[in-house]
Amino acid sequence: MLSTGSKLFVGLAGLTTAAFTIYGITQNFGALGAIGLFFLMLALFGLATAVMYTRDGDISAMDTAVVQTAPAAAQPAGDSMWPFVAAAACTLLIIGTITDKRYFVAGIGLLVVAIVEWMVRAWADRSSADAAFNQGVRRRIMHPLELPMAGLAGLAVVIYGFSRVMLAADKNLGPVVFGVGAALILFFGMTFSARPNMRRSMVAGICALGGVAVVAGGIASASIGQRDAITVAREEDNFASRNVALRDCKADESEGDDNASGAVAAKSNTLATFVFDGTNLHIDQIAGSLDGQPLTVDRGNTVSILFRNDSPEKHRLRIYAGSAEKDVNGSKVVEVTEFCTRAIGEGKTQILTFKMPKPSAADPAGYYAEVPGVDGARIAVVVP
């Protein structure tokens, strides 16, 4: 007598055989479709044979030992949080695509963790019919990795999320937010220590809610952006750009020049020293004075020079390293490569580290070092 599963596979195999025969006759058995139907027919006949041999895995109800140890008699695995974590990771990926790429990276990391944890949990739940033994297997494998990484990740999330909140909050509201957050942490910490018998699930739930609140606040603050005062100060600071070649080295002072350092360590390894006396720009090297001669800088090497201002007014040193015309949205834009120190007062010294990207012969005007706003305070720079 055929079992239920074998009936289904035999029927499917018969339909596939009929389809193979009709398609093969009409296509002379040479078409790719006939080959596919042939192998599908073989696979279905093989499955039908296996199901008939195993009788659908049926066991006798009279065999008590087999019934108790059968997989169907095992208790189902407990609920897992990792599908929820994977969904949260996908949400972070979407949010990071719109707001901040760092959330996108965090989403990728969280998704990898969720997949690994989910796989190990599924494997451990099938180690035996004993749920406690399965849980122990999982703990022995994952706890040496989970606990340190969870602590580090939680600390990083809290610090980063809270920093976004503080950057977006008004400067008068920031101390209040910081104080309230510290008070809540202290309150719950004292509560947990005073009630050591509190259920572990409740403690984990409270901590998870706090983490979610910090992450949600950080995401909302990142989407809003920094408060206007920080944004305006960054825009006005010529030295805020990470690309030093795009700094605005004009003669006028800016907020970025406030409280500029005026001292350099004696151990600084510098190529030359530029000195401005208020009228002329002089250059000295270890070998001696180079007044009237250009400064030679090797292309591609990172070098450092010193600038000392001996004039009563604040000045900066600017190094012009060529310009290039680029097409930006159909418009021709001239991009200037320049390096400069901050504006410093009388008797102070600044160090400038830079790298020349191209030979000086590539620019018709040549490269030079100058004090912006002072005519004649210029020295040629040669890059072979």
In words, what does this structure look like?
- Helix 1 (4-27) runs antiparallel to helix 2, helix 4 runs antiparallel to helix 5 and helix 5 (101-124) runs antiparallel to helix 6 (131-168).
- This protein is 49% helix and 16% strand.
- Strand 2 (281-285) and strand 3 form a beta hairpin.
- It is elongated and about 110 Å long.
- A five-stranded mixed β-sheet has the order 3-2-1-5-8, with no helix packed on it.
- The protein has helices at 4-27, 32-54, 64-69, 82-98, 101-124, 131-168, 174-194, 200-224, 228-236; strands spanning 272-276, 281-285, 288-289, 295-296, 302-309, 318-328, 331-340, 348-355, 367-370, 378-382.
- It has 384 residues and is of the alpha+beta class.
- The longest helix is centred in the middle third of the chain and has 38 residues, at 131-168.
Question: Summarize this, please?
Answer:
The protein is an alpha+beta fold. Helix content is 49%, strand content 16%.
Question: Any descriptors?
Answer:
alpha+beta, 16% strand, 9 helices, 384 residues, 5-stranded mixed β-sheet
| Number of helical regions | 9
Mean pLDDT: 79
Rg computed from alpha carbons, rounded to a whole number of angstroms? 36 Å
- Indicate the low-confidence ranges by residue numbers: none
Q: State the end-to-end CA separation.
A: 93 Å
Q: From N to C, what is the helix and strand string?
A: HHHHHHHHHEEEEEEEEEE
- Assign an overall shape: elongated
Q: Beta-sheet strand percentage?
A: 15-25%
Helix and strand content put the structural class at: alpha+beta
Number of strands: 10
Q: Main beta sheet, described?
A: 5 strands, mixed
Q: Which strand order spans the largest sheet, edge to edge or round the barrel?
A: 3-2-1-5-8
